[in-house]
Amino acid sequence: MTSTMSTRTFNFSAGPALLPESVIQQAQQDLWDLDKTGIGLLEHSHRDKAITRIFDEANQLCREVGNVPDDFEVLFLHGGASTQFAMIPMAFLNNGKSADYVNTGTWTTKAIAEARRFGDVNVVWDGKPENFNSTPSLDSLAWDPQAAYSYYCSNNTIFGTRWPATPTTPTPLISDMSSEMYARPIDWASHDMVYAGAQKNLGPAGVAVVIIRKSLLEKASTDNPSMFRYDIHADKGSMYNTPPVFAVYFVGKIFEWIKSQGGLTSMEQMNDRKASHIYDAIDGSGGFFTGHSRLEDRSTMNITFRCPSEALEATFIEEAAKQDMVNLKGHRSVGGLRASTYNAFPESGCVKLAEFMNEFARTHG
To answer: Of 30, 100, 107, 125, which one is the catalytic site residue?
Structure first.
């Protein structure tokens, strides 16, 4: 029997994260019998017409929902976002140039470490001294006009910060959008590549969605192993080897679901409203709850906050779980509490958490 949201736990996990119920239900059917072939989704050869259709539709829906310009390639790649940390400098730090990175958290720290294996990295801003509680002001960044590329992470899952606007750079701009891709419209004129591990907003773990401008792709090194060459994956339609079929299937269904919700502008409005319920509870608590992020940099995907003591935070997590709200523990880098409210997370869950927070502050404050 298929569960509905009324009987499911509200899962505030930072990822893998909650998925749309309608997509899960469709996947249940297709795992058993895809397109009335009598063969389940996971049993088809990736060369079958049924799977080719899935990849073609996922590509087309990615473009349609995201308003992706024609001069970009859409790729579905193995290895998640972490592989991209290395694949990007492998591709583009091949000419003796450096790359500009903005360090706003754990994942950019990791990306910088990987890039330094292949070339010089210029860290144009580092939020570590303030424990990554903000993003930089755009006019404070001194980009190198000779850099191979510029790199930033648009939303920081662990610390709960988000860039309120896209930086303008003199060199190709690459963004890790893993925790907010397709949660709001993307400024394609400013970006040359965006990518995301799927397991937050776009589907299950196992695939990275990479959208790269063709003119940047043409600059990528062809000396790397085949699995680490963007041009080969583009030429082969993301099927150079056996691809992560189930993950791509699910990502395509998520794009279709986002389209049914009104597209990216509607998703942004919905996400703003969802997050506001929880931020209002923080701001209205009289200081009982304190947010980690600077107000102007608050994420609508990952809401990080603290109670007056770690003991109260443990009590908060325990009591919330009794009301079917789980995975609210903050990352060890920040501590405290974190509510992740990605695209598929229902507004009713945000309302319920806010009401719980108001009562918790009243009874424990």
So the answer is: 107
Alpha-carbon dihedral angle through residues 177, 141, 192, 131, given to the nearest 10 degrees: -20
Element spanning 319, H or E? helix 310-322
CATH topology identical between 24-260 and 262-364: no
Query: Is this prediction's pTM over 0.90?
Result: yes
208 half-sphere exposure, CB direction, 13 A CA radius:
25
For the chain, the structural domain boundaries read: 24-260, 262-364
CA–CA separation, 211 vs 8, rounded Å?
34
Architecture of domain 24-260: 3-Layer(aba) Sandwich (3.40)
- Residue in 174, 204, 179 with CA at minimum distance from that of residue 191: 174
Q: Are 163 and 300 in contact (CB under 8 A)?
A: no
Whether 107 sits among the annotated catalytic residues: the reply is yes
May I ask the CATH architecture of the domain 262-364?
Alpha-Beta Complex (3.90)
CB-CB contact of 17 with 203 (8 Å) = no
Q: Is 213 strand, coil or helix?
A: strand
- Percentage of the residues of the chain whose pLDDT score is greater than 90: 93
Catalytic annotation, pick one of 100, 125, 192, 200: 200
Q: Any idea which residue has 């108001």 for tokens?
A: 358
pLDDT grade for 94, boundaries at 50, 70 and 90: confident
Rounded Cα gap, residues 321 and 307, in angstroms: 17
How many whole angstroms separate alpha carbon 268 and alpha carbon 199?
19
Give dist(CA 261, CA 61) in Å, integer: 14
Cβ–Cβ under 8 Å, residues 198 and 212: no
Percentages helix, strand, coil for the chain (3-state, rounded to 5) are 40, 15, 45
Q: Pick the catalytic residue from 30, 176, 192, 297.
A: 176
Dihedral angle computed from the Cα positions of residues 231, 234, 238 and 240, in that order, rounded to the nearest 10 degrees: -50
Average pLDDT over residues 192-202: 96
Q: Is 329 among the catalytic positions?
A: no
